[in-house]
Amino acid sequence: YLNVVVVVGLQFVVAIVLINIYFCICASLQFLLCPFQFCLSLSIMKTKILFFVAVYYLLAVGETQLGTRVALTQKSLGANNINNAVIVPVFPTAMNMAIEPTEWFEQGYIHFYSSVVTVNSTDYRIYYFTKGALGYLSHVATATSPTGPWTKPILRLVTVNGSSDNNVIATTVLVSVFVDTHPNVTKETKFKAIVGNGAVAGVVTSSDGFNWNISNRVSVGWDHIADTQPILFYDEVRKRYVASGRIDNPAVPNHTCIASPEGLSPGDGAASTRSVGISFSNEISERSFSNVTCVLTQLDPDYPCQDLYTSMTVRYENTLLMFPSAYNHWRHTDPPHAPPQSRGKGNDGVLDIRLAVSDDDGDHFSFVGGRQHVFITRGKSNFSISAWRFYGDAFNGGHVFMTRGLIYYNNNTAGNEWDTILAFHQGSQLTHGGVDYWWTPGYHNLTNKQTTVRTGIQMVRMRRDGLACVKPESTGGDIVTTPVTIPSCAQGNVVLMVNVNATTTSTLHVALNETGYELSNSNTINQNKIRIAASWGDNGSNISPLTGKVVTITFALKGSLCLFAWELRCE
User: How far apart are CA 210 and CA 194, in angstroms?
Assistant: First the structure.
């Protein structure tokens, strides 16, 4: 994109210089004979020409595409029409556990307020906290490789039960830890995190991510964001801070899904009003995030007993991604006969992770594919009424929550660019209500400093741009893009790369609305490649001869394939 801006900018300067030379010559020749009216009309004509030249080049820059167009929405894909095909989320592949309770003071519960941070290419960290016999403790685990193994370093920063041989970094909850990449950030405030909830939430800082200045917090004014993991990060694309979190939206109460255990009348309990709000600010200062806008809520009639929890939000290419947990409320008959600890709560159920996206920089979010597909599901487990929890091999039978942050890394040592996305999620065998009353005095005994509840943080893997894709219908489908300008390259040739998972029985053909680049002579793409160049007969893959031309691109899909993304790039 920078190459295109430089080239177009130079072309614009040359055009202006030539126009001025032309008018200088005209003015010189007509100087003695030129009446005032002629000179005036000459100036007006010059102004008009300069205006149209400026508009032309501004439009050219606006149309130029060198960034990746990802199949998350029609707009993010750069599509004008998608015919006989649909955008669907692609489920990630589960990997090994990153964090499990191994120390006695972790045995209570590894909570879902967790963050993954890339410090550099050899320093990866997971910040998590536990709720156990000693209350709340914030921990950090480190790894030199993004795939682990993750270790719990002995930091000797906080004394726990008489010993500092642990990985504890605070006796309070650190939420949404991130590395601040703002150009003006100081070394002392490179790491940031959120402490507290709602109106008392504040941002704290650290120079190394281990030693935190907890006492000196900036109250950012999250009056409307509730008690569930708020998110904060610096958006390098829009050059601003983004904050998102759960809000209680009374405009969308869903009283049909209220849990009403035996003995309670309908209408008692907690209504389904949880939604997601977002706020933006150019700086982190007192009350800089006080204006919160509701951007995602649950109004789908197919899910009458559900609302949205948490809001792990992150920038990805030309979109903002959000991974809310959908809270599926239980009625009193599912499961039946709730134990005494849950009676009167009216606020219990299970949670799984969904995928939402904004292609307008956060003003609105929608679920990928237009429906609430489950993105990361709970593990298959059985439920114990007497213990009021799930049990079995799955550690996440009760709920799953997305960890803040994604890791991008190169899984192919032969390549120079990253090709894999790693995400992390917390899970537990406890239900929403079970998390609360699991610690009810007398209900569960922690005197032996052990529990039988499984909990932890697991890694999942996706290919680059592989969160969603376009799938054709059985008869085939096609995508027609909005007009784009073929850029020029300072080095190499312009090629059109696609990220596609195709098989030998499926086909992808690509066409440009220019002679020699039709579907009829498009070479078949039927491979599974993160990057493969479209090509046409004898023309090959080089489309540099079209530099400067405004074209539309057609992708013709047939068979069982997934088109994840496309891009114009210099090779």
Answer: 14
pLDDT for the residue numbered 406: 96
pLDDT score for 133: 66
Whole-number Å distance between alpha carbons of 343 and 332:
9
- Classify each residue of 217-250 as buried b or exposed e, where b means 16 or more C-beta atoms within 10 Å of its C-beta: bbbbbbebbbebbbbbbbbeeeeebbbbbbbbbe
> Considering the entire predicted model, what is its pTM?
0.83
pLDDT < 50 positions in the chain: 1-4, 32-33, 36, 38, 55-65, 254-270, 332-345, 441-450
- Reduced to 3 states (helix: H, G, I; strand: E, B; else coil), residue 13 is helix
- H or E element that contains 11: helix 2-29
In degrees, to the nearest 5, what angle opens at C-alpha 142 toward C-alphas 352 and 179?
75
In degrees, rounded to 5, the angle at the alpha carbon of residue 75 between the alpha carbons of residues 71 and 77 is: 30
Distance CA 139, CA 457 (A): 13
Contact 324/291 with Cβ under 8 angstroms?
no
Which residue carries 């948490």 as its tokens? 310
What's the pLDDT score for residue 178?
Answer: 97
d(CA 42, CA 96): 73
Q: How far is CA 135 from CA 59, 161, 332, 446, in A?
A: 59, 12, 31, 12
β strands within 330-440, DSSP E: 349-354, 356-358, 366-367, 374-376, 382-384, 389-391, 399-402, 407-409, 420-428
What digits encode the pLDDT tens for the residues 258-295? 443 333 333 334 455 788 889 999 999 988 888 888 89
Among candidates 171, 235, 175, 234, which has minimal Cα distance to 201?
A: 175
CA-to-CA distance for 531 and 555, rounded, in angstroms?
15
pLDDT at 61: 39
Rg (CA), the chain: 28
Query: In degrees rounded to 5, what are phi and psi of residue 387?
Result: -90, -10
Cis peptide before 304 (omega within 30 of 0): no
What distance in Å separates the CA atoms of residue 143 and residue 17, rounded to the nearest whole number?
A: 56
Q: Which residues are 315's β-sheet partners? A: 320
Between the alpha carbon of residue 387 and those of residues 14, 101, 110, 351, 406, the distances in Å are 77, 20, 19, 19, 35
412-425 burial, b if ≥16 CB within 10 A, otherwise e? eeeeeeebbbbbbb
307 bridge partner residues: 327
Distances (CA, A) of 192 to 176, 312, 378, 566: 8, 16, 31, 35
Residue 64 DSSP label: B
Q: Which residues contact 294 (CB under 8 A, 6 or more apart)?
A: 247, 249, 275, 276, 277
The pLDDT value recorded for residue 242 is: 95
The answer to whether 119 touches 179, Cβ cutoff 8 Å, is yes
DSSP 267: T
